[in-house]
Design brief:
The structure holds 2 protein chains of 2 kinds. Chain A is of the alpha/beta class. Chain A has helices spanning 19-28, 50-58, 79-96, 114-131, 144-155; strands at residues 10-15, 37-42, 63-68, 104-108. Chain A contains 5 helices and 4 strands. Chain A has one domain (10-155): Rossmann fold (3-Layer(aba) Sandwich). Chain B is an alpha/beta fold. Chain B is built from 13 helices and 9 strands. Chain B has helices spanning 19-25, 30-37, 51-56, 74-86, 95-99, 111-119, 172-186, 206-209, 256-259, 277-288, 294-301, 307-311, 325-328, and strands at 8-13, 39-42, 62-68, 71-73, 87-93, 135-138, 141-144, 148-153, 163-165. Chain B has a 5-stranded parallel beta sheet with strand order 2-1-3-5-9. A two-stranded antiparallel sheet of chain B has the order 4-8. In chain B, a hairpin with a 2-residue loop joins strand 6 and strand 7 (141-144). Classes of the chains: A alpha/beta, B alpha/beta.
Chain lengths: 156, 333
């Protein structure tokens, strides 16, 4: 077990109009990317409340990937800029709490960029692998049952 | 019930400053109603009592206990568990007990860093690097002092809590209203709110109570209050570039600080539905910054020199992350 390579758990937030479709496209085009990332679809990167990122990190994620439409291409006009600003502020805040800011990453991907998104995911997984596990202690404070379910998911 | 037929009341302070006790006394003549309706059995700041007196009381014999302060050491936890056992209604009273408050800022540092600052700070001459010993052999016996925990915990992180009363300290008019309610309940004229309710506060935000004018918030620069010459007395402070925590903070204080030109710092804790206070503040602040350019955004954010301290000033121990990494480094307890 110990000799095995560390497999990071990464939560990825995707936008319904661009990056989620890019991931979908990567799937239909059979472009491979590491299975470490668990994608969650939001309507827009502007929906990304920093709470989601903190919850992911506090519950066992080693990294969080935020994806949205390219600047100027937001389906809701300007909400990706809001995501950008929250992301910059969130990184400063978690750094003060001792979490490497690089554990959270923002990537732009249009619906046509399946290849690019798969590449970004691959890169990010390697970056997190390099940083090592986060193992935030609150992730261990959960009931045993819930924890074993998550461990099974991780092992699967 | 006591011998005099009155229900019993207790108030205790754990890791706190004593401001909550003063706020209780600030209810003025209402304090006489407390005395008229309750038998005060334990209140270390106001009367002499020993822990063994509390230990000797039957379980659930105290009707109402107001517990203020965070759980910083073993003694605090012992008293929290003891008072939980002896009380029917346990209220986390004030910001420290509900969210950790200012003592909770110590959760940014490790125990060692805290001890270094306290026992070898600039004003302390300590060439032998002496630190408190939890057990010390004296001719008379072993001297025991309660061990200091790696992190400060909130009351609900160690015991079951019935009600939460926010504020640093809770506003006196809110305390008076709660006292009045409890007395009404005793007389059968009112019912207690459901368990877990936040009492003595509103459900909304400080902004909702604030009388300042709000337009469209577009901020191009954050300034500190001493850096601007004339603060507009009518306009929203956040719109003037002053970091104000009103958007995330629970109402109930009548927006006293913004009313006199001082930004809200968030002592009433998260508004209804807010999971992580700091996250809500980050969300609010980032939303109103008027820039689309990463470099410019960073320059504007430089105007907030201590984001974690500003957004978690009162709530770090009760946040999703609970403490900085260094405070977790020596054990999870």
């Amino acid at each position: 077990m110990m000799s095995e390579q560390f497999e990071p758990v990464i939560i990825g937030f995707t936008c319904n109009w661009c990056s989620y479709r890019a991931a979908d496209m990567a799937g239909t085009a059979r472009i491979k990317y590491p299975p470490n990332v668990r994608l969650i679809r939001l309507m827009c990167s502007g929906r990304l409340d920093p709470t989601f990122v903190l919850k992911a990190l506090s519950r066992g994620a080693d990294g969080v990937l935020i994806t949205g439409c390219h600047p100027g291409e937001c389906h809701y006009l300007e909400q990706n800029y809001k995501a950008l600003r929250r992301y910059r502020l969130l990184k400063r805040t978690i750094a003060q709490l001792g979490i490497e800011p690089d554990r959270v990453k923002l990537v732009w991907a249009s619906a046509a960029e399946g290849v690019q998104l798969a590449r970004e995911i691959t890169t990010f997984v390697e970056e997190i692998r390099e940083l090592g596990p986060l193992h935030w202690p609150t992730s261990m404070a959960r009931p045993q049952a819930e924890q074993s379910v998550v461990l099974e998911e991780v092992a699967a | 019930m006591s011998e005099n037929g009155k229900p019993k009341f207790a108030m205790y302070w754990a890791a706190s400053c004593g401001g909550c006790e003063i706020a209780v006394l600030n209810i003025n003549e209402k304090i006489l109603d407390v005395d008229a309706n309750f038998d005060v059995v334990f209140w270390p700041v106001a009367m002499d009592a020993k822990y063994k007196d509390v230990e000797a009381m039957p379980d659930k014999s105290i009707l109402l206990t107001l517990f203020n302060g965070g759980i910083r050491n073993e003694e605090n936890e012992h008293l929290a568990k003891l008072l939980r056992q002896k009380s029917q209604i346990l209220v986390a009273f004030g910001s420290c007990a509900t969210e950790g408050c200012i003592p909770g800022l110590a959760n940014f540092s490790s125990k060692e860093q805290i001890f270094d600052a306290v026992y070898e700070g600039v004003s302390t001459d300590n060439p032998d690097h002496t630190r408190p010993q939890y057990n010390y052999d004296m001719p008379e016996g072993i001297l025991h002092i309660p061990p200091f925990y790696p992190q400060l915990k909130t009351l609900d992180q160690v015991v079951d809590v019935d009600y939460f009363m926010p504020g640093c300290p809770p506003e006196s008019h809110q305390i008076a209203a709660v006292v009045e309610l409890v007395i009404k309940v005793l007389n059968g004229e009112a019912e207690l709110p459901p368990k877990g309710t936040v009492i003595g506060a509103g459900p909304s935000t400080v902004c909702d109570e604030c009388g300042r004018k709000r337009n469209v918030k577009t901020i191009t620069e954050f300034v500190r209050i001493h850096e601007i010459e004339n603060i507009d007395p009518e306009l929203c402070l956040l719109e003037q570039g002053i970091l104000c925590n009103g958007p995330a903070t629970r109402s109930g204080c009548s927006a006293r600080c913004p009313a006199v030109g001082a930004a809200c710092i968030g002592c009433y804790g998260p508004a209804e539905g807010v999971v992580d206070y700091g996250a809500r503040m980050m969300s609010a602040v980032a939303s109103v910054i008027d820039s689309k350019d990463p470099a410019e955004i960073d320059a504007i954010l430089d105007g907030i020199p201590d984001p974690a301290g500003s957004f978690y000033r009162f709530s770090l121990p009760h946040s999703l992350l609970r403490a900085g990494k260094s405070a977790w480094s020596n054990g999870n307890s």
